[in-house]
Specification:
The protein has helices spanning 3-16, 22-38, 49-62, 66-85, 112-125, 131-146, 150-154, 183-202, 223-238, 246-258, 263-270, 275-278, 280-296, and strands spanning 161-162, 167-171, 177-181. It is mainly alpha-helical. It folds into 2 domains: 3-85, DNA polymerase, domain 1 (Orthogonal Bundle); 112-294, Intergrase catalytic core (hpI Integrase, Chain A). The protein has a 3-stranded antiparallel sheet. The longest helix is centred in the first third of the chain and has 20 residues, at 66-85. The chain is globular.
């Protein structure tokens, strides 16, 4: 069977049955296409362990990150296990495929003071009523105030907001719904945007949309636009050229823990399936504490 045909059926299974996020399904599709290219068009039943190991070795030689290699290993193992369950292959060649261990680099975050300065500047810029400035201020306040993923922000509809309680209903990974608080500053920014900014953007669209955050043409905003905004405003603060909306999620989680929030509560707010995923932020907080100690204590 052609590998690409089987891969598309597998990705469809991920989206429809396992309800994985579109981003995860897209990444797996890309990984399997890369495997097909590395295997020189071999058929599904001809792929063996040596082929898979050679594929990962080539990725290593290209300089792919360990996290990318680990994801590709996971994609291959999941795909071939599914293919065997479907009767497409007799034996699973990925059973002895070893995934490289992921690196333990701590996430990039911004300081409390720098975030206050950044958000104050965008609030001031929005005071003249420009719809894009109002929108951008709301985006930054919500991302930092709630720690939501960019896909969750882009997917927000008007009915998902409860401004009285300063909460939003978001649809996370695996189509899991949760309620997240976003705080008073984000509520105020959203209120200003919804009353003065969004109406000006709605009229630019040819059709109605229930989306909260709109693009310049009045349609639901896309993740790429949000990424570009966050990259532009955060890069000078954190000193990294490649930075995206997830940095605000990292920053929100770290500042919550620094302020004394319970780890389980942060897990619920972020929508992490595993507490282990949330625990990385305790390492960030511990590292910041150690740095402060070394600077301040005479016997450090």
């Amino acid at each position: 069977m052609d590998l690409t045909v089987a891969a598309e059926a597998f990705v469809d299974h991920l989206e429809r049955v396992r309800r994985l996020s579109p981003a995860t399904a897209k990444a797996y599709r890309s990984d399997l296409r890369d495997l097909h290219a590395a295997a020189n068009g071999m058929h599904l039943e001809d792929i063996d362990l040596e082929t898979l190991r050679d594929w990962l070795w080539r990725a290593t030689q290209r300089g792919d990150a360990r996290s990318t290699l680990a994801r590709r290993s996971a994609a291959a193992r999941s795909f071939f296990r599914w293919a065997q369950e479907q009767g497409l292959i007799a034996h699973d060649p990925s059973l002895r495929l070893i995934a490289p261990k992921k690196g333990h680099a701590l996430p990039t975050i911004a300081s409390r003071d720098s975030m206050s300065t950044l958000l104050d500047a965008h609030r001031a810029a929005a005071e003249d009523g420009d719809p894009i400035a109002l929108r951008d201020h709301a985006i930054l306040e919500v991302l930092y105030g709630s720690g939501v993923r960019v896909s969750e922000l882009c997917g927000l509809d008007i009915d998902d907001l409860d401004l009285d309680r300063a909460t939003a209903r978001v649809l996370g990974k695996g189509a899991k719904e949760r309620i997240v608080p976003f705080g008073v500053p984000a509520r105020d920014a959203l209120s200003a945007y919804l009353s003065r900014g969004r109406p000006a953007l709605v009229v630019r669209s040819r059709s109605f949309t229930p989306a909260v955050i709109l693009g310049s043409r009045g349609a639901r905003i896309g993740p790429r636009t949000v990424y570009q905004l966050v990259a532009r405003v955060l890069a000078p603060i954190v000193g990294a050229e490649t930075i995206g909306p997830h940095a605000l999620r990292h920053t929100a989680a770290t500042h919550l823990l620094d302020g004394g929030a319970d780890l389980r509560a942060v897990q619920e707010i972020l929508g992490h399936a595993s507490l282990g995923t949330t625990q990385i932020y305790t390492h960030v907080s511990a590292e910041r504490l150690t740095a402060t100690y070394r600077l301040a204590h005479p016997r450090a």
